[in-house]
Model the fold of this input.
Amino acid sequence: AQSVTQPDIHITVSEGASLELRCNYSYGATPYLFWYVQSPGQGLQLLLKYFSGDTLVQGIKGFEAEFKRSQSSFNLRKPSVHWSDAAEYFCAVGVPVTSGTYKYIFGTGTRLKVLA
Amino acid sequence: DSGVTQTPKHLITATGQRVTLRCSPRSGDLSVYWYQQSLDQGLQFLIQYYNGEERAKGNILERFSAQQFPDLHSELNLSSLELGDSALYFCASSVGWGTGGTEAFFGQGTRLTVV
Done:
């Protein structure tokens, strides 16, 4: 069965420090991978996505993620965290349902706290 | 603004009652997804509709049902409500088909409190 694992429930970093959020997926074929961010009381906003091609993808707000097929991972990174990055981050995989349609399976999320 | 509209934003109701949550997808999106987000369960996929037809079911209880109407808006019906149904319910939409899939766009959610 398809699944997404985010091993870190909470992460705390200092403002200006680098960040890496881990994501591992379980899916037999080429995955379609996404990272979303959820600020308190808000819906989920797409940060970046990977469909094919270059395994290092750039997203909004200075985030990037690297797809590593050999490790079944899609880790999210940011070189210098800002206080406004404090939020919950979700990794997701898109899997085909019936011909042409897709559903999205989400990880349990990583809550990021940023220290001033 | 994602373009996905959910109403109401907040709902407080008593145990045993029935409620209906409404979702209007982004213009042009044919797929609608419902998710339940609670503290202990994370973001759980409930059900997907594509152009009016149910396409996938996740962890949706039998007390819950959904439908997508010809104008593509969707409703999630929750009945015989229990305290444990208190959660944030998200609707998302996407084009929903095509090579590679596309991302889902999320509404702001409906916060349901069962008392």
